[in-house]
Amino acid sequence: MTSGTYSAQMRTEEKIYARKLMAVYAKPFGVLAEHALSDLTAYNTFFDEKQLDTYLSDGIRRILTPSDKLKLTPGGVNRTGMYIASQIRQEMAAHPELCPSVVRDGKRLFTAPDLVQAEQDIVEAAKRMSLRKVPYFRADQDLTDIADDFSVFWNSAQGFSRSKDLDKAMASILEPGDLRLINGPPGAGKSGLCAGLAYCMLAHMDTPPTFITTAPSDKAAAAIHADVQFAASALDDKWPEQSQVQGMPLKDLINRMNEGFVEPGTVIIVDEAGLMGTREMAQFITAADKTHAKLFMLGDNRQIPPLPAGNGFDLIINHVPEASIYNVTRILRQRTPGEAKASSWIREGHAEKALDFYAMQRYPDGSKALRFHDDAKSVYDSLTKDYVEFVTSSDTQSMSSVVLAIDERSAQTLNDELREGLKKAGVIRKARDVYGEGDTVTELGLGDAVMFTGKVAGNDGRNTETVNPGTTARVVDIRGGRLGLMLDGKKKRIYIPEEKSSILRYSWALPLYVAQGVSRDRAFFAIDRSGGLDLAKGLVGFTRHTEQLSAYISREAYPSHKELAKEMSVFLSRKPVIKDYADLKPAERKGSGLAQSVAASFASSDRER
To answer: What residues contact 104, with CB distance under 8 A and at least 6 apart?
Structure first.
């Protein structure tokens, strides 16, 4: 048993009683330790002693019965819980093979052994794939000419001007290798490059491979599949079978590779790879490695990081020198002169240069890009007024738009403000309460903007259509227990039961983490308080528009754009990986787990007092 002391002054009888409880509840306390390790590394790679003690002490109080607690004073219950928590923590620290740790800035941080293993699996698989260099084309074929062939087709089809950066990138990713990473900001043409990959292989290979597209989210998976299928369909007459690109959810693809249903040499294109946590990336890349697939991953290691712990894409970029990585920097979606360059400055950490530019920016309608207001309420009022004028003006009917909020709380406030303004203007009509599953009640009206937060089967009157999370729509019908929704982009009406309204959220205003994949002609951005924007979030906020940005800034939060630039120059939201601080190796020991180790140690605590 590892001894330790708790800083609070415990009475002798409390300590004796605590050790008795440790023996009585040895197994539950062991399970609690295991749950702590799992829960605290679900969304973050590391946790510290304070986080662990808080988690454990809360769990201990839940395990103790009312009769156990009656034998202690209220303060004694707290001291006893913290004491037992400190003993569990020390037992965990005594077994680094079960609870690994690193030291950062003099502070010990704990992690989980499966994350150590996952990072090792990613690095080793990425190295092996990077070193397998089987050419795609004959030796007499010039990759630059092949890339140029696609560039002519794609740029004319998509309406983009020719880009030397993309031509160079296209030639680079056609080089031999089983792993290619394409890293760059949103709107830089990464999906176009992978569409070009399919086009070039179908047009110039003697025997082209099978193509599969995927992404961590259903919405991104559908988007990359559409782009690649569009390019491949140009070769339907030459390769009718191979030009049919398969689109799969990421989890389904992992299962199919593990079950042997994906042929060696299959080209797998992954969009939004930067949203894959360490565990998910390890499962995916090890399966692709064993399959001997050709893997192309698109992502941005400076975007808002994934929700799960770690970041597999960032790990490969920073810790696998053998990997072939092509960085694209020019943002093609922003068409207003100078703004694409400003976005590049933000991504490079030079937010002050970018905001100096935007502070001087004036649009043809005479409006400023940066608009300062006294406080958050003034921000909401001004944005709502301008937005209602925008959507009701006949001059802007053909323009698309998005309203951005720093976080969920601000988005909720903005949605309430915007809906009130839009109801008064007649944009939202006949609003009434709609009752969903789980006793949820949502006010919806004709014309309301909504986003699906879960997958649902809709009906268009004849066929069933699956609608993926992240899809946006307008409410066009509410009657007969059904909601009629016009899906954005598709201009297609579907119906869902009213009880499914529980998976809808208002989408007049979106928090930045939801808006990452959104691109519109004009963006209205509410910057209502400080502390919510770093490099990644600021980059999202300033790159959703293609033509015009209106940023409404509270002077209470930022007296000038200089203060905002300081915050946006630091990448605070990046999730660190273990290899940033230590090259930990997976434990070789194969024995009892953490729960058994803690339980075995605690079972004798009553005898040791």
So the answer is: 46, 581
